[in-house]
Design brief:
The chain has 7 helices and 8 strands, in the order βαββαβααβαββαβα. With 213 residues, the chain is an alpha/beta fold.
Length: 213
């Protein structure tokens, strides 16, 4: 019988990371990377921000893990497009931070599961997309995630890249809960009518990744 894999979730306080913490909190092989110790102290690993990681200082924290799931990302699409500060944050997190994490995974022999986005494509291909299709980022956010994928491949680490979209969850504020809140408060709900995507349940995504592992 194969040994149970030790799994570290990086970015465990974000939307998808919170779903991992909630859905997998009873699993003794799941650990959660956080900025400081919180409620599940025995299963927390203090990491800080991924853009600050270095092999010299932080690789030891990853030594006991077979799989690292990267849920950390700068994802405010509109702000990344409009403001320099948000774009700089996307570069540091989605590109430089991912590169640092991939190098550490290569160093310790862990498999990196990285959460990326359909925004690495612009949606104009006229058919369904395949994983091997060339990137054509839709915007600056998509460009940062695309370059992050490149950094993982260039690192030589073992990796799985999962592209998803429009993640919603019962555990964190998101576009679905915002619409429900507005409806409950009899507020107007505004949206676009020219965007097509595939809303993804964070709970289902957690289950799918666990099955994949």
């Amino acid at each position: 019988m194969s040994k149970k894999k030790n799994i570290l979730v990086v970015g465990a306080n974000g939307l998808l990371g919170t779903a991992f913490r909630t859905e997998m909190q009873g699993c003794d092989n799941y650990y959660f990377g956080v900025r400081k110790y919180t409620d599940i102290k025995g299963l927390d690993v203090v990491l800080g921000n991924i853009e600050d990681l270095t092999i010299e200082r932080d690789a030891e924290k990853f030594m006991d893990f077979d799989v690292v799931i990267n849920c950390a990302a700068a994802t405010n699409v509109d702000e990344i497009e409009k403001t320099w500060d948000a774009n700089e944050k996307a570069i540091k997190t989605n590109i430089e931070g991912v590169e640092r994490l991939a190098k550490i995974c290569k160093h310790v022999g862990a498999t990196l599961i990285h959460i990326s986005t359909d925004y690495v494509f612009d949606g104009t291909i006229g058919r369904e997309y395949f994983p091997s299709d060339a990137h054509k980022p839709l915007n600056m956010y998509g460009a940062s995630k695309s370059r992050g994928e490149d950094k993982i491949i260039e690192s030589g680490c073992k990796y799985i890249i999962i592209r998803t979209s429009w993640i919603y969850s019962p555990y964190s504020p998101n576009f679905v809960t915002n619409i429900i809140d507005k409806a409950n408060n009899n507020e107007d709900v505004y949206g676009t009518d020219n965007i097509i995507s595939s809303p993804t349940s964070a709970v289902n995504l957690v289950s799918a990744i666990d099955t994949l592992i």
